[in-house]
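STRUCTURE:
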């Protein structure tokens, strides 16, 4: 990878002061549970007793996958570009949640197999019209991998320049559960069969076919690259939108932003980011456990305790957006709740 990131573990020197403020809020000690844990994490990320979730941004990254040609998804690839256009018209699930929670939405074409360059509301950062079919060859070259990382970095820099302190990332790409399943298998040394689910709605026969295709692709990869590097599984199987998400996560960690990690695909991207830069996990909040088979196992790989269990599997970053009010409550607790002394309430512990 051409780009290097200056990511450090969270500085915990303020931890005692943050805990003291939390414990002196006018409530029983520990009575706000996970909110107190979230408040601690956000305060440590931002190195302040007065945290902020100002200018929240959501990156919706689109890309198509060559492996889709093998019938591994129930949805045809044209759904990718159709949904991308739908997002510009405000009609997607991601639009609804961004409006609800005050997020600025950026819809970005990183590798959609359709000309979206003249569609108002879509940022054109296309690397190619979809990846190659990783059943037969690497999904992308190392040069394209580096381009995708740079796209993610640039997008986060744009958000940061606007004062963004909290970042959500979502994806739109038919077939992207396939590379996610393979990454999960490789990163966690988990049998591939346990990593494959229904995606957008495959039946049992479809899941069986998906396993056969991905199993063969994994075998071919091991033959083609007998001594893999840290990035070889990323460029060999990943989608352009997924690699851009990894670049965005790493840049966001470097900028000390709060990163809200969404579902199965974005958790796979987070795993990849953590493998490259383990300290990047300090800046991540894993927002929910989705309905895709294997998501919980993937979360367990990084000892993540997700905030929500709502049976979601839409993608687009919608689960992370749903969890945002909980994180917002934790921040408001730190900034708006009175303490025992000011409220003139006896501190009884």
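SEQUENCE:
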């Amino acid at each position: 990878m051409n780009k290097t990131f200056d990511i450090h573990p969270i500085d915990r020197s303020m931890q005692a002061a943050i805990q003291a403020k939390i414990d002196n809020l006018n409530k029983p000690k520990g009575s706000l549970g996970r909110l107190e844990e979230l408040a601690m994490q956000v305060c440590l990320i931002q190195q302040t007793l007065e945290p902020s979730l100002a200018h929240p941004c959501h990156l919706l990254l689109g890309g198509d996958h060559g492996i889709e040609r093998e019938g591994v998804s129930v949805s045809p690839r044209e759904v990718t570009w159709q949904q991308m256009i739908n997002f510009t018209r405000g009609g997607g699930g991601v639009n609804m949640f961004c409006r609800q929670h005050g997020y600025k939405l950026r819809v970005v074409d990183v590798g959609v197999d359709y000309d979206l360059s003249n569609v108002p509301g879509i940022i054109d950062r296309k690397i190619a019209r979809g990846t190659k079919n990783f059943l037969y060859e690497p999904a992308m070259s190392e040069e394209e991998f580096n381009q995708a990382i740079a796209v993610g970095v640039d997008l986060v820099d744009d958000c940061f320049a606007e004062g963004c302190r909290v970042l959500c990332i979502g994806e739109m790409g038919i077939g992207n559960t396939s590379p996610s399943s393979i990454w999960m298998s490789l990163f966690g040394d988990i049998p591939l069969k346990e990593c494959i689910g229904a995606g957008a709605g495959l039946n049992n026969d479809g899941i069986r076919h998906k396993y056969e295709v991905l199993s063969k692709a994994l075998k071919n990869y091991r033959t083609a690259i007998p001594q893999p590097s840290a990035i070889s599984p990323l460029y060999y199987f990943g989608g352009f939108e997924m690699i851009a998400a990894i670049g965005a996560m790493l840049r966001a960690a470097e900028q000390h932003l709060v990163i809200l990690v969404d579902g199965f695909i974005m958790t796979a991207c987070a795993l990849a980011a953590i493998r490259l830069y383990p300290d990047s996990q300090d800046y991540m909040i894993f927002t929910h456990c989705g309905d895709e088979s294997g998501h919980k196992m993937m979360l367990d790989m990084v000892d993540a305790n997700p905030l929500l269990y709502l049976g979601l599997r839409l993608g687009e970053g919608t689960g992370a957006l749903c969890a945002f009010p909980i994180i917002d409550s934790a921040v408001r607790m730190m900034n708006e709740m009175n303490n025992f002394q000011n409220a003139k309430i006896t501190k009884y512990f």
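REMARK: The first strand starts at residue 57 and ends at 63.
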